Amino acid sequence: MLRDFAKRIGYESPVEVYLSRIESLLLSDYKISRRAIAILLLQEDKEILDIVKEKEKERIDLISEVIGEAKGHFHEPLAYIIGLCRQKEVSRICGSVMTFKEVRKISFREHLSRIMMNPFTGAPILLAVLYYGLYKFVGTFGAGVLVNFLENKVFGDYVNPFMINFVNSVIPFKLLQDLLVGEYGIITLGFRYAFAIILPIVATFFFAFAVVEDTGYLPRLAMLVDRLFKKIGLSGRAVIPLVLGFGCDTMATMVTRTLPTKRERIIATLLLALAIPCSAQMGVILALLEGRPLGLLVWLGAIFFVFLIVGFLASKIMPGELPSFYMEIPPLRFPQFSNIVRKTLSRLNWYFWEILPLFLLASILIWLGQITGIFSFLVTILEYPIRWIGLPSEAAVAFLFGFFRRDYGAAGLYDLKKAGLLSGNQLVIGCITLTLFLPCVAQLLMNVKERGIRMGIAMSVFILFFSFSVGYLVNFVLTLLGVSL
Amino acid sequence: MLSERAEEILEALWIQMEDQGKKPLDLGPSRDDPAIDELVKLGYIRKDVGHIHLLEKGKSRAAGCVRRHRLAERLLVDVFDVKKKIIDEVSCKFEHLLHEGLEDSVCAMLGHPTVCPHGKIIPAGKCCAAKEDRRLLKFMSPLSDMKVKEKGKIAYLQAKESSKMQKLISIGAIPGTTITLLQRFPSYVFQIGQSHFAVDKELASSIYVRLL
Q1: H-run or E-run covering B210
Q2: CA A38 – CA A392 distance, rounded (Å)
Q3: Which residues of B touch A111 (CB under 8 A)?
């Protein structure tokens, strides 16, 4: 039915001639009209060209010839000519049915929008969004209240004891018992981690993100940071995956798919792996540095500095097209609650099924590492760089586990702090190194999946050496200046 | 002062160099043109049997001639709205009137364009590097040089890569549409129709606007 109403846009006569010539050469089935394919070919759409090359093997030379002829006919690129024709048609249709009232007064909405886009007033607004959205709502409420309830009450008091009893009474082998319900078991660690820690944190994060997204704030933020991001080889658009990284780096790495060039995707992946702490990790680090505002400042400064310097260097080294930034700035809107809930749920659903297997895999790896003795071997090796950056060798365990659960590494440091084994300086250095240190195993797997095995491994090796070097450097500078935090 | 004929020979040599790299120009029937001797005497070109070569000394002079020709084309198309098909004839006469001083004023008035209506590069003049902004009679400007709240109609898009051009087309920045600059820093924000867009400096400098 719809087809009967579809109306063709008439293009300038030479364009129409080339279109019909190309159409007559397209003999395969494309599921969409040949005219549409022909128009895309004239606009030099690479994907369509590849499909046509595949399907019209004998005629592709003739088709390319027609495209070449068409290109020669105009001074401007064909996409431009076609765009012009369409614009004319749009103006004709709109002009006959729409009228606009001249609005003189600037609305409240417009005022707010301008305040957000002004660099001087925009920065405090960004800080407020981060503080209430990320720190208060996700950090305190999600990672604090909700995690506490789910982990200690639901899993600690009910699920885990029940499952441990059940498994131990059904399966008689110690090894399998450990795999399922041991200290790092699939159920006791894998599932608990996914449901009691990741789920509430990510759910609150997605909720906050959806609110911010639906107001139309993100394009305004992108436009504010574009100039800065150009210096690190990214465009303002990259602000979306990077902000998501504060929720979960693994998911954010997946979202780098939305960046237009390979170069941007690689740089963003590296920065996410290195310098963006996820919400779980940030929660523990904030707890570690509690009551040490100066230490927190040094940590923040060091991470921010690393973010900029590594991005800057990566943008100098990486070849490829420089990013360009263009984005629509939609009007500010008051978000609709039902939309936000729907968005949050569908994202959670998607995220969970992508991530859950990775956590279960991590449990199995820890189990394997434990029974084969690889772990104790790795811990002995790690003790060297740990002492090198001025930390007690007990911290090695925390670092190794940090790889399997980023926040768990930080939690390991927390135990050391409680035992009174760490000075203020050591605490800050530990936090800096651990933030930069290898991403969690889930993120490593995602890096390999998204960027390929070579790039994934290369990044990990770089991060391994780089994080300890920065730790060493900070320790060196603090000692040299005689500062104790 | 060079004769008009000599200027045209220099232009032909420059275009030859642009299109095919450094190659001598075949003189054909005009081998006894007095303008050639004029150029040889000045040390701008070298002549051997049937061919002339552009010498280093003549290059900047040739660039100047080509610049004036293409500026004249821009002026005719952008300001006087002359149809592209006939600009060749008219601009050939017009260019000789654009002599030093006048040339830079026209360049500034057109917003220091970098390509002619045929998409060929306009050699940059001193005024382009200095970006001196003589506010007198400013007719055209790239979006990146406009003031906040300034309004105009998009005249043409100029981008080296067609991918950039496509980005602009996709957001509706198409010749003939009215555009208002809303903000310059940290990114360029402009209004087209009822929509607002943000672009970086590079994209903003490829939108040429006829100021209203």
Answers
A1: strand B207-211
A2: 68
A3: none
Which among A350, A281, A282, A348 has a CA at the least distance from the CA of A130? A282
Residues of chain B short of pLDDT 70, as ranges, are 29-31, 100, 131-137
∠ at Cα A185 (A183, A188), nearest 5°? 80
Q: How far apart are CA B66 and CA B73, in angstroms?
A: 11
Q: Give every CB contact of residue A405 below 8 A, 6+ residues apart in sequence.
A: A193, A280, A362, A440
Looking at residue A367, its amino acid is W
Please check the confidence at residue A217 and state whether its pLDDT lies above 80.
yes
pLDDT digits (tens, 9 = 90+) for A402-446: 777 655 666 677 778 888 888 889 999 989 998 998 777 778 888
Confidence of residue A1 (pLDDT cuts 50, 70, 90): very low
pLDDT digits (tens, 9 = 90+) for A141-188: 887 899 889 988 998 899 889 988 998 898 888 888 888 888 778 888
Q: Coil, strand or helix: which one is A173? A: coil
**What would the CATH number be for the domain defined by A2-97?**
1.10.287.1770
Average pLDDT, chain A: 87
Kindly write down the DSSP assignment for every residue of B156-195, as one continuous string.
EE--SSHHHHHHHHHTT--TT-EEEEEE-SSSEEEEETTE
> CB-based contacts of B181: which residues, under 8 Å, 6+ apart?
B143, B146, B147, B148, B149, B150, B151, B188, B189, B190
Name the token pair of B164: 């950039």
Q: Does B171 touch chain A (CB under 8 A)?
A: yes
pLDDT for B31-53, tens place per residue?
Answer: 677 888 888 888 888 888 778 88
Of B119, B189, B203, the CB nearest to A324: B203
Q: Which two three-digit tokens encode residue B88?
A: 């060749």
- Hey, which residues does B209 pair with through a beta bridge? B141, B154
Torsion sign over Cα B47, B49, B50, B51? negative
Give the distance from residue A73's alpha carbon to the nearest chain B alpha carbon, in angstroms: 12
Closest residue, chain B, to A78 (C-alpha): B162
Both tokens of residue A108? 């409240």
Alpha carbon of A150 to those of A109, A182, A183, B80: distances in Å?
A: 40, 19, 18, 74
Rounded distance, CA B180 to CA A217, Å?
Answer: 22
The domains located in chain B, with CATH, are: 1-138 (1.10.10.10), 140-211 (2.30.30.90)
CB contact under 8 A, A326 and B200: yes
Could you tell me which residues come within 8 angstroms of residue A400 by beta carbon, excluding any fewer than 6 positions away? Answer: A375, A378, A379, A382, A409
Domain residue spans of chain A? 2-97, 116-286+325-346, 353-481
Q: In what order do the strands lie in the sheet with B140-142?
A: A326-329, B195-199, B188-192, B178-183, B151-157, B207-211, B140-142
Q: In chain B, what residues touch A324 (CB-CB under 8 Å)?
A: 164, 167, 199-200, 202-203
- Return the bridge partners of B192, or none: B179, B195
Write the DSSP symbol of residue A145.
Answer: I
Quick one: which of A47, A45, A34 has its CA closest to A79? A45
pLDDT at residue A319 in the model: 87
Over B86-121, what HEC string results?
HHHHHHHHHHHHCCCCHHHHHHHHCCCCCECCCCCE
